[in-house]
Structure prediction request, 326 residues.
Amino acid sequence: MNQTIKENTQEVISSKDLLLHYIGHRSLTRRVIEAFPEKDLFTFSIGGMRTFAQMTVELFSIAGPGLNEMVTGKTVPFDESFDHKNSKQVLLDKWDEETDRIRKLWMKIPDEQFGETLTLFGQYTGTVISSIFYFIDNEIHHRGQGYVYLRALGIEPPFFYER
Amino acid sequence: MNQTIKENTQEVISSKDLLLHYIGHRSLTRRVIEAFPEKDLFTFSIGGMRTFAQMTVELFSIAGPGLNEMVTGKTVPFDESFDHKNSKQVLLDKWDEETDRIRKLWMKIPDEQFGETLTLFGQYTGTVISSIFYFIDNEIHHRGQGYVYLRALGIEPPFFYER
Prediction:
């Protein structure tokens, strides 16, 4: 390795700190799920959009399976078939299970892998870090939508900056 | 410097790539502003929330001024007083101006500064990188809300994954 380059390079964020940032977001999203009245979680929507439960199921289908593919190298097709049984508790339990799985898988990704290119779910090609940003950003995006649903239902959402 | 540690450390994302990621988000947010009918941009809201124009003005008040403080070291109070004159073009022009400013300021932040702690606007204490993630995440959050407004108005928003 070229030591001159190495000495001038300092990471802007470590893998561990990015994981903590992500886990903070997941904690907030969990509180948004919790804030919904159970009925509205599975039925309420605006402008023909999906319910917040359906968006949550989309989130289940992306980050955990995506990280699993990064770690194991095994490609599985994209699968959004999780059965929530119209139960908030089922969603929350699955949320916690996925958070735990995400944490464990993340720790297995060596730093040098973040810049590597892969094709997730057999169809989305990009670097590992760009895919991980997609997982995080997509969660923030849908959670923001959940905030509007809550406000429309007359419910105050958790503070955005509390993680 | 401890070369053993340096040799085992590889950044998960470079400053330049994180800036490109951010600029991609800003490009998408610009298209969301553009997608609003001018009247609705300044009047439409759901559940007592702010209009998308008001959220956009909040975004003006955070990232550009925040990065300016990181680069110059000069603290200024948080200021959300931008006058949009009820004009979409005024918002879009300011958006472009801020994007350009953000890009130029970002390039002046040395890599080793990202881990340093600062108190932004005299009140928000955290590392530079955590503040920058706040700028990006807060934009994604409000843009997600803008997507719901657009859907409620019967308008198809731009694709989330197109930057």
User: Anything to note?
Assistant: The CA atoms of residues 5 and 11 of chain A lie 12 Å apart. Confidence is low (pLDDT under 50) at residues 1-8 of chain A.
